[in-house]
Write a structure and sequence with these properties.
By secondary structure, this protein is mainly alpha-helical. The chain is 97% helix and 0% strand. It contains two helices and no strands.
């Protein structure tokens, strides 16, 4: 067993030397690899965190602009409604004034036409009265009455 124990001892020593040599040779590259990997992951994480914050800021800014645009649109709609209301009232007022002028002009025209019709009716009535009187006078004048009227007229002269 001595021979087997001796062999085990040298195998263990060789293994320890191999591990020490590997440790000494690979310590720096593995350490650099691991630290570079960790540093890369940390950098990526920090970059992702910054991008997330930037995206959140952009989102907040976009929401703020959207709200401002919505408020501005509401102001524009309110102003347009107010202007439309005023224009509607103005149009209605002008239409009422125009209607009143038209009615007044119509009333005046009716009064003129009524006056003209009354005057024509008076004239017609006067002419008819004269004609009627002439026909009655002609019918009632006899040759004797005619002679008396002529004599009476001559005496006055």
């Amino acid at each position: 067993m001595e021979h087997g124990g001796h062999l085990l001892f040298w195998k263990t020593v060789n293994t320890i030397i191999l591990f020490a040599l590997l440790y000494w040779l690979l310590k720096k590259p593995v350490s650099n690899f691991i630290s570079n990997g960790i540093e890369s992951i940390v950098n990526k994480f920090e970059k992702a965190k910054e991008e997330k914050e930037e995206a959140l800021n952009l989102l907040k800014e976009a929401e703020k602009r959207a709200q401002e645009a919505k408020e501005e649109a509401q102001k524009i709609v309110s102003y347009a409604e107010e202007v439309a209301k005023r224009e509607k009232e103005q149009i209605i007022s002008e239409a009422k004034q125009t209607a009143e002028r038209i009615l007044k002009m119509a009333d005046e025209e009716i009064e003129k036409e009524t006056y003209k019709a009354k005057e024509e009716l008076k004239k017609f009535a006067a002419e008819k009265a004269v004609e009627l009187a002439q026909s009655k006078i002609k019918a009632s004048i006899t040759p004797e009455l005619n002679k008396k009227l002529i004599e009476s007229s001559l005496e006055k002269l």
